[in-house]
Queue: 2 jobs
Job 1
Amino acid sequence: MKLSNKISGIKPSPIRKFFKYTEAAKKAGKKVYFLNIGQPDIKTPEVFMEAVRRDGREIIEYAPSAGMEVITSAVRKYYLRYGMDFSEDEIITTCGASEALRFIVDCICDSGDEIIVPEPFYTNYAAFVRASGGAIVPLTTYPENEYHYADRAAIEACVTPRTKAFLMTNPGNPTGVVLTPDEMDLIAQVAIDHDLFIISDEVYREFVYDGKPLKSFGQLDNVADRTIIVDSASKRFSACGARIGSVLSKNKELLESLLKLAQSRLCAPTLDQIGCAALYGLEQSYFDEVRAIYEKRRDAVYEELKKIDGIICTKPSGSFYITVKLPVEDAEAFLLWLLCNFDDNNETVMFTPAEGFYATDGMGRSEIRIAYVLDETSLRRAIELIRLALDKYKALGMK
């Protein structure tokens, strides 16, 4: 018996592949600072559980496949805050952003079709596109250029007759890059000129720093028919285990196709929809407070990183990630050494090697992604451990 070529071509998650080494480090008595997964440590707002308890239903029945009215109404009102008017029938509730992305790719890609994705990118994009029978065409960015990618010539060099869409996370994972309004206009015009969908993964929308404006492709009228917005309650509300996401689009044909897939999996979790609807109703002050926390964490990480000789990094403008080029040849080998052979006062650190965030072979080998989802004191100590480890690594003659 033989499994499909599609599944055989999907690589294991680079974010989770080192867990056995962290478990061994913990069993050896080491404290491990986890900077590898974007799991917020901020308490999920109490309104989630309050709404579930208040609902009081005795049977957890199937919900409508496109989403319960309570959640689609709440998401609609949330988007109105940002000047985007989506009717409830232009919103489909999904089991997290992951299902949203998988559904979208399945709807627009036939076997051999291509999607342009700036690299480094969220690793699961590769799995979603590969599983659909499509292929990612990477638009390579570089730490020396601050990972920016809104360059018309570079994007158009990736376009072929099989290109169906341009997919990006904005604000970015893993780089923290935030598109400027001019950059968004450029991408929109390229999409118009080449008849492409724009898949805008905006799950980190509120995490934009330094007073920069929040901007969405959903605010651009000239690409309303080709824009597909991916949304999620996971990061915004620190509710990753409540698997509620959304797809928002003005494209009726796409929505009808998405609904077929939504119907095939029956529904998103009923109680999670009820709880997340309450989250979307939180006041603006909640978003402002959380943004301020992460901005301070970003500043703490960046300040400590700048103390390390030989690194290349840029202060991120958004999300809660930073990608860093280390003065080593192989970040994965360095991480294994960190977990297996290094400690300072019985402490070590875990990050994610960035090679797995690239589709281009050989790219990102010296880079890492840090998720700044710990308190400031822990973050400063974690970056200090990286600095101390690099010093010892070099002293041992390792590269």
Job 2
Amino acid sequence: MRIILFGPPGVGKGTQAKILSTKLHIPHISTGDLLRDAVNSGTELGKKAKAIMDAGQLISDYIMIGIIRDVLQTPKCSNGFILDGFPRTVPQAEALSLLMLELKLRFDAVIIMEIDHEEVVKRLSSRLSCKGCGTIYNLLLDSLKSSSSCQKCGGELILRDDDKPETIRKRLDVYVRSTSPVKEYYYRAGVLKTISAEGSIDDVTDSIVLLLNSKHV
């Protein structure tokens, strides 16, 4: 089964992708991880990507598609994969469609996880990071207060700039502007599926599995 999983920041894409990877026995392909692996492995595309990043520039769609092409042709993806973090724009979606056509593959579902944006603000602004070891805590889930110390190293817990409400709302605005056309692209292709990410982690997983097992996918 070949799946794209996307949604706004803080919706739980990475968490669900890891759970589904275990349940479905297919790899979770995070484009961020792919890029780091390519750079660390010193592949031709990885070297080009490193040079671009070292210069403070953005990785081109051409290089990103090339890196994705390389991993999709490995044995670990022979039975399918879950793609997380790509595409984010219509040109990327079009390039990915051409790649799938080239490899004679098709997506079984493009799943968008939807959630009220104020719930995202609430979730992300409740995250605290340890200044010492980097461990992340959530005031909504973990038994601690904003004045608590890290339970692992005793370090100071801080609210990162990225997790401040005003920053989160800006990120959500960017997401809406960039991904609304992508949603329309996959809707017109007939593969877009929508699930609510409002419930617990288990509830959301059950909804995705039910969708994937339905006769409509």
